[in-house]
Amino acid sequence: MAYTVYYLVSGGTSAIGVSLCDPIPQGTSLIANTAQVQTATGAPTAGGTVFSPLAPLPSGNSCPNQSNPNGAVIFNLGDLSGASGSNFGFVRFRVRVN
After folding, report:
1. Which of 5, 15, 21, 96 has the fewest Cβ atoms within 10 angstroms?
2. Which residues pair with 93 in a beta bridge?
3. How far is the C-alpha of 85 from the C-alpha of 25, rounded, in Å?
């Protein structure tokens, strides 16, 4: 099963220092080497940092549950353009249902 989060930078200005945390859903296991990032019209590339269940998360992260019960993937996207045509993309990973 693929989990995909799409983003769109709106308002005509850039988004600075963007980081996105996507927790691994309960009852699933991350499939290794499936975390990807795609910006604008480029091809998807490997990306994200995988944290195993209960592994300590870095300070200042955007994960909703800091105890990290099921694992997480953190995508540090950096600065994202607000210019039309380059202001969108997605992050994705795949899981297996346990």
Report:
1. 96
2. 3
3. 32
Assessment of whether the complete model's pTM goes beyond 0.85: yes
Residue with tokens 């993937």, as numbered in its chain: 73
How many other C-beta atoms are found inside a 10 Å radius of the C-beta of residue 35?
23
Residue 11 has pLDDT above 90, yes or no: no
Q: Report the distance separating Cα 16 and Cα 52, nearest Å.
A: 27
Measured CA angle at 60 (ends 55, 66), to 5 deg: 40
39 within 8 A of 82, measured Cβ to Cβ: no
Between CA 47 and CA 31 the distance in angstroms is 14
CATH classification number, 2-97, choose in 1.10.10, 3.30.70, 2.60.40, 1.10.3470: 2.60.40
Find where tokens 């346990």 sit: 98
Selection from 48, 49, 51 nearest residue 71 by Cα: 51
